[in-house]
């Protein structure tokens, strides 16, 4: 098990325990850039649509955390399952779900992934093995452990990845799940996205043990802290965890040290932290800028990068157009899908 | 005077058991704490320890005797200085003890043993109206509800490899109430999984496995403990199909004893019927008879939706006739007329039927013919059967062990008012658990629960008699 360090993510440029992360090939960097950009542009657009009143209710943006889900996804193979909490747009896009369907769900339209009945926090895709989208903080940890139980029951080698935040990490059922996952050696990776704030409460104000990689120690679950702003570090840690699970060794904990640029939800002015703090992370550690800079240093042209950005913007704009033009669900849908 | 050893009770609900084995012989010396015999029920095995010292004077109940009533003298212990000649002295008290024992020990037991009603309607347990699903001439086997539930699970597990059971003590221990007896031996640890005491966690894991397409049966040792898991049951199991626009469902059964057992006080004696029946997305089943327990549990396991299957500890040991069919399934959502009548409709389910049927017997003696409906399923509720009956009788009484406020009886009363208001000759009356946490003291507990007498009184009052 890794010996985690106390250093904050912002002071890190590399994985703590495994030395500098392995370099990406140019194609890997390009793919990561594109996938992270898609999430960022999508979320920016969602923020705009929310401001226009086109999206209702809660809307939790993933901006700043893109490297976590994109890096993890690069470590998975088809058949592996993903489940997360309410900050889920990035996870859906990373698993390959269609931006139109996601955006149309945000606007509550019939073409949304849940036909407009789920909204921002409740979307699913059986096709992409994305199991939600759960609004109750911590619930997805038990559910994700159940997905792993199903894999073991069926004797396949699939792994389930249960994402949750530093806030959810204090829920009781997380530890109930840890216990059973290790007891039964279930192939589940617990990815704790530590973005430093549970809504408005800083980690240090809510957690007696702020090193989340240690949260599995009493269950003998190995864990490590990962620079969640560096997609290469995420992928490398993810691969290690996936291998551990596929070998039948049980669960694995990855604490992804990351940062959310926006408020907890759209209605959060984020007064619990300074503007300078946010700006510093953006300036020093932005996950997308890191990849851009690497690509530029590797002589990829500014124009090529602009083309990627333009492609992504096109996808997002089309999704936004669709999500606003698509009709609301038929009133008859009110009573469908309650039972099978 | 020789000391009598009485047949012990393993639990407050045990009424009889088998004397499996004597470990001491007549004439052998006995010290306090010695194990002298083994007792077994269909639920558990227990050793009988001597609490007195002396010599085992006489064995009154030979080993291998089945169905020995609790408190029956099973042996006498001679104190120092006493001889076999003294044995006779114990005989008289023993006879008294037996006489006392033949009085009904508790309300439910009395009802289950009730003799056929004077009207010719069959005894409650053997049930008046045959289920339409059972072809005439079908052979019936007598089973306890506990066995019927186990057989239902075993049959479904044989039929479908995706069905498995998880819960506390379901495997090695053979079930806290022995409902899963033998399943581990037949299906192995992969499909019969002991969990730690961690209701919230294992309920969530069960739901997750169901989302992945498996068909878990999650046993709660009692539904009282399921309150720790109720978020996963409602927010995850019940709502996901809707929230996913029909994409991702959850075929899962949550089962276990619900409601009051006996003498376990407030935290272990609560009826959750109305709690779960409130929730769209859940189906809620609460059988009373052994046949229904089997047929409905099989239906619940096959149902593609989350099903709350409310059992009752008091009823586990009760026997009934179960049709001997390869695949006996009772559709969820259908009530059963347990007894036909024309004067008043009594509606209940689960252990409430005990009071309802006993009351119907009493009412018949006074010339009131009650129609008793066993709801069997609380959600979806078979409104049609209730309304058809009320249109015939013009009067209705609901019987439930749970509290009246926002209870199932309140819901039934509202439906009758909505659909049969013009047919009512009297206001619908509710008999329910009293509006207090369940007390421990035997007399208070009895008062807190509904009784057949209260049902009789309510039925008479709606008949203006």
UniProtKB/TrEMBL annotation, chain A:
Its cofactor is thiamine diphosphate. It holds the Pfam family E1_dh. This is Pyruvate dehydrogenase E1 component subunit alpha. It catalyses: N(6)-[(R)-lipoyl]-L-lysyl-[protein] + pyruvate + H(+) = N(6)-[(R)-S(8)-acetyldihydrolipoyl]-L-lysyl-[protein] + CO2. Heterodimer of an alpha and a beta chain. Keywords: Oxidoreductase, Pyruvate, Thiamine pyrophosphate. Residues 8-24 have a biased composition (Basic and acidic residues). Coiled coil: none annotated. Residues 35-331 form the Dehydrogenase E1 component domain. The keyword Oxidoreductase applies. InterPro entries: DH_E1 (IPR001017), PDH_E1_Alpha_Subunit (IPR050642), Pyrv_DH_E1_asu_subgrp-y (IPR017597), THDP-binding (IPR029061). Residues 1-24 are annotated as: Disordered. It comes from the Bacteria. Its EC number is 1.2.4.1. The pyruvate dehydrogenase complex catalyzes the overall conversion of pyruvate to acetyl-CoA and CO(2). It contains multiple copies of three enzymatic components: pyruvate dehydrogenase (E1), dihydrolipoamide acetyltransferase (E2) and lipoamide dehydrogenase (E3).
């Amino acid at each position: 098990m890794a010996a985690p360090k106390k250093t904050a993510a912002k002071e890190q440029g590399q994985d703590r325990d495994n030395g500098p992360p392995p370099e990406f090939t140019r194609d890997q960097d390009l793919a990561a850039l594109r996938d992270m950009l898609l999430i960022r542009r999508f979320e920016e657009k969602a923020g705009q649509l929310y401001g226009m009143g086109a999206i209702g209710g809660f809307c939790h943006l993933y901006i700043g955390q893109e490297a976590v889900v994109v890096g993890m996804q690069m470590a998975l193979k088809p058949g592996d399952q993903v489940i997360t909490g309410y900050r889920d747009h990035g996870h859906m896009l990373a698993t390959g779900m269609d931006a139109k369907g996601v955006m149309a769900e945000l606007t509550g339209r019939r073409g949304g992934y849940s036909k407009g009945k789920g909204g921002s926090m409740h979307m699913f895709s059986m096709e992409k093995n994305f199991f939600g989208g759960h609004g109750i903080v911590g619930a997805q940890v038990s559910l994700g452990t159940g997905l792993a139980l199903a894999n073991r029951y069926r004797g396949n080698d699939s792994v389930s990845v249960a994402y949750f935040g530093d806030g959810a990490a204090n829920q009781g059922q997380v530890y109930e799940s840890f216990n059973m996952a290790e007891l039964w050696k279930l192939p589940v990776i617990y990815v704790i996205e530590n973005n430093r704030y549970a809504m408005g409460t800083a980690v240090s104000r809510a957690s007696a043990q702020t090193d989340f990689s240690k949260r599995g120690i009493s269950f003998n679950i190995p864990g490590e802290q990962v620079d969640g702003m560096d997609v290469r570090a995420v992928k490398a840690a993810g691969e290690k965890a996936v291998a551990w699970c596929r070998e039948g060794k049980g669960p694995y904990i990855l604490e992804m040290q990351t940062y959310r640029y926006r408020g907890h939800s759209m209605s959060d002015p984020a007064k619990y932290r300074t503007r300078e703090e946010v700006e510093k992370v953006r300036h020093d550690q932005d996950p997308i800028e890191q990849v851009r800079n690497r690509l530029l240093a590797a002589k990829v042209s500014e124009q090529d990068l602009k083309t990627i950005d333009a492609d992504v913007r096109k996808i997002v704009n089309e999704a936004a157009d669709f999500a606003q033009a698509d009709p609301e669900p038929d009133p008859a849908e009110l009573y469908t899908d309650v039972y099978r | 005077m020789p000391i009598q050893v009485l047949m012990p009770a393993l639990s407050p609900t045990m009424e009889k058991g088998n004397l499996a084995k004597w470990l001491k012989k007549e004439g052998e010396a006995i010290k306090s704490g010695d194990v002298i015999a083994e007792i077994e029920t269909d639920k558990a095995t227990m050793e009988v320890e001597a609490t007195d010292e002396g010599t085992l004077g006489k064995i009154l109940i030979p080993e291998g005797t089945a169905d020995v009533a609790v408190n029956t003298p099973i042996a006498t212990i001679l104190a120092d200085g006493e001889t076999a000649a003294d044995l006779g002295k114990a005989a008289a008290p023993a006879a008294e003890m037996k006489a006392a024992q033949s009085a009904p020990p508790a309300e439910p037991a009395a009802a289950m043993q009730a003799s056929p009603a004077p009207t010719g309607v069959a005894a409650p347990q053997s049930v008046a109206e045959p289920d339409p699903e059972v072809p005439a001439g079908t052979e019936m086997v007598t089973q306890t509800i506990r066995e019927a539930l186990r057989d239902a699970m075993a049959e479904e597990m044989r039929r479908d490899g995706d069905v498995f059971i998880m819960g506390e003590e379901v495997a090695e221990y053979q079930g806290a109430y022995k409902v899963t007896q033998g399943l581990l031996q037949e299906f192995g640890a992969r499909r019969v999984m002991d969990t730690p005491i961690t209701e919230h966690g294992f309920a969530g894991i069960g739901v997750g496995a169901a989302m992945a397409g498996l068909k878990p049966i999650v046993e709660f040792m009692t539904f009282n403990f399921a309150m720790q898991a109720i978020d996963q049951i409602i927010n995850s199991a019940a709502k996901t199909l809707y929230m996913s626009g029909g994409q991702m469902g959850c075929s899962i059964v949550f089962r276990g004893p619900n409601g009051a057992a006996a003498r376990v006080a407030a935290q272990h004696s609560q009826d959750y019927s109305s709690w779960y029946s409130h929730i769209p997305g859940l189906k809620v089943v609460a059988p009373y008879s052994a046949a229904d327990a089997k047929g409905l549990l099989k239906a619940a396991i096959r149902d593609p939706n989350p099903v709350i299957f409310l059992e009752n500890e008091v009823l586990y040991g009760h026997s009934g006739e179960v049709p001997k069919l390869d695949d006996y399934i009772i559709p969820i959502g259908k009530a059963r007329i347990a007894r036909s009548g024309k004067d008043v409709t009594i509606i209940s389910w689960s252990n409430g039927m005990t009071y309802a049927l006993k009351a119907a017997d009493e009412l018949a003696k006074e010339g009131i013919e009650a129609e008793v409906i066993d709801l069997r399923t609380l959600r979806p509720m078979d409104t049609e059967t209730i309304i058809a009956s009320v249109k015939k009788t013009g009067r209705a009484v609901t019987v439930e062990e749970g509290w009246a406020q926002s209870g199932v009886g309140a819901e039934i009363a509202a439906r009758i008012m909505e659909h049969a208001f013009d047919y009512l000759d009297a206001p619908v009356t509710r008999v329910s658990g009293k509006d207090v946490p369940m007390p421990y003291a035997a007399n208070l507990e009895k008062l807190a629960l509904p009784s057949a007498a209260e049902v009789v009184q309510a039925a008479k009052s709606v008949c203006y008699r």
